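WARN retry 2 of 3 for item q-0093 after timeout on previous attempt; input resubmitted unchanged.
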Amino acid sequence: QVQLVESGGGLVQAGDSLRLSCAASGRTFSGYHMAWFRQTPGKEREFVGFNWGGSVTYYADFVKGRFTISRDNAKNTMYLQMNSLKPEDTAVYYCAAGSSYSTKWYDYDYWGQGTQVTVSS
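OK item q-0093 returned
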């Protein structure tokens, strides 16, 4: 099993930056594909991006050029650097771990509790 804990959320203004962290414990972190999702009330969990094997990244179109995912396997931590934030980026952000890389939330086995990001206009 893998336990995931997100941190770094908060209230920011449009155009600001935030960096979210996802700290993992339990089984070998480096063996999992890691992803970020986000969710707003009443909507399905939405794919943001994934990091496969520490070197391959893929992003949803709406965050390309603004968000960057990185991971430090030595620290068992994944990061989501979010720049040029927009009010529509407001959501609870979750990190997830799984054995296959996917853009679908149901393909991931382990989830953190989420961290709220609120972007004011």
